[in-house]
Amino acid sequence: MNCLFIYSLENKLPIDLIYMNDAGELTYRAVIIRKITVEGILTFDIGKQQLRSFKRANILSAAKQRRKRGVNYA
């Protein structure tokens, strides 16, 4: 996952995260990494349009985005 975090940080491209919060709920987030620390990461959450922090221990999965978001033309 560290490689993906560095990829997003350097290229300012979004990645997809699956995250479990402290209540045990799973969430999907599309984020751009802003800062990497030992305990977690600081990100810009594309869906919520705000800065969010995530604990490394609670990140279950990270991947490059597969689909492009935007308008599809016929």
Can you characterise this structure?
The chain has one domain (about 1-65): Roll (SH3 type barrels), CATH 2.30.30.100. The chain has one helix spanning about 1-10; strands at about 15-20, 25-35, 40-45, 50-55, 60-65. Strands 4-3-2-1-5 form a five-stranded antiparallel sheet. It has one helix and five strands; from the N terminus they run αβββββ. It is globular. The chain is mostly beta strands. The relative contact order is 0.26.
What can be said about the biggest beta sheet?
A: 5 strands, antiparallel
The fraction of residues assigned to DSSP E strands is: over 45%
Could you name the CATH topology?
SH3 type barrels
SSE sequence, one letter per element: HEEEEE
Tally of contiguous helical segments: 1
- Largest beta sheet: what is the strand line-up? 4-3-2-1-5
The geometry reads as: globular
Distance between the termini: 36 Å
Protein name: WYL domain-containing protein
Brief characterization of the structure:
It is built from one helix and five strands. The chain has one helix at residues 2-11; strands spanning 15-20, 26-36, 40-45, 50-55, 59-64.
Topology of helices and strands:
Blueprint: H1 2-11, E1 15-20, E2 26-36, E3 40-45, E4 50-55, E5 59-64
Antiparallel strand pairs: 1-2, 1-5, 2-3, 3-4
Features:
74 residues, mainly beta, SH3 type barrels, 5-stranded antiparallel sheet, 1 helix, 5 strands, 14% helix, globular
